[in-house]
């Protein structure tokens, strides 16, 4: 069992800095962050992410807790249409299959050791993660990270067919 499947446990796990280093981009807003340690590249933190206004190029590392808790975050991410979302790489999960047709690119990363609120690293999770991009900025950042060897890049057929 991974930390995001531990019912009743904290969802306070933060993105390790090597993710942002690989992406090499600036985000305008962290829509799911609660601590300054989570904010990438001088972006603002947004409290109440699902009910607040999202603007610009966003970073989203939503709570992984709960079986389908990520669904509402991905719905909002897709509706916004400009950013990168970090999710579990559960390609068989309903929320992943529902989101994938609307995503411009996905980078399947190696297993990440997320950070606790005190800055220490957690243990390796039971499965990997995926970075989902919508919009040209996100696709460019995922291409950069893939070129650096940070993961395997995939694009939905609708994106490939439109080119």
* N- to C-terminal distance: 40 Å
Helical content band: 25-40%
Binned strand content: 15-25%
Per the CATH scheme, the topology name is Rossmann fold
Q: Main beta sheet: strand number and arrangement?
A: 7 strands, mixed
In which order are the strands of the major sheet placed? 2-1-3-4-6-5-7
CATH architecture: 3-Layer(aba) Sandwich
CATH C-level label: Alpha Beta
Overall structural domain count: 1
Number of β-strand runs: 7
Mean pLDDT: 79
Quickly give the structural class: alpha/beta
Number of helices: 5
How are helices and strands ordered from N to C? HEEEHEHEEHEH
Rg, Cα atoms, Å: 15 Å
Any low-confidence stretches, pLDDT <50, length ≥5?
1-9, 35-42
Brief sketch in words of this structure:
With 163 residues, the protein is α/β, with parallel strands linked by helices.
What are the salient characteristics of this protein?
163 residues, alpha/beta, Rossmann fold, 7-stranded mixed sheet, 25% helix, 16% strand, globular, disordered N terminus
Structural notes for this entry:
This protein has helices at residues 17-23, 71-80, 94-99, 136-147, 157-162; strands at 29-30, 44-45, 58-60, 83-88, 105-108, 129-134, 152-154. With 163 residues, the chain is α/β, with parallel strands linked by helices. The protein has a single domain, classed as Rossmann fold, CATH 3.40.50. Strand 3, helix 2 (71-80) and strand 4 form a beta-alpha-beta unit. It starts with 16 loop residues before the first helix and ends with a helix.
């Amino acid at each position: 069992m991974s930390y995001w499947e531990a019912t009743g446990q904290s969802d306070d796990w933060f993105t390790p800095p090597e993710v942002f280093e690989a992406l090499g981009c600036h985000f305008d807003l962290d829509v799911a962050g609660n601590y300054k340690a989570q904010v990438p590249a001088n972006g603002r933190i947004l409290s109440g992410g699902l009910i607040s206004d999202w603007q610009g190029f966003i970073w989203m590392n939503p709570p992984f807790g709960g079986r389908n808790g990520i669904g509402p975050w991905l719905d909002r991410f897709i509706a916004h249409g400009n950013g990168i979302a970090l999710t579990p790489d559960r390609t068989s999960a309903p929320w992943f299959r529902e989101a994938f047709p609307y995503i411009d690119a996905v980078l399947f990363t190696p297993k990440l050791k997320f950070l606790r609120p005190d800055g220490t690293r957690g243990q390796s999770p039971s499965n990997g993660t995926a970075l989902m991009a919508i919009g040209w900025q996100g696709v460019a950042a995922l291409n950069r990270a893939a070129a650096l060897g940070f993961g395997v890049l995939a694009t939905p057929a609708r994106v490939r067919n439109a080119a």
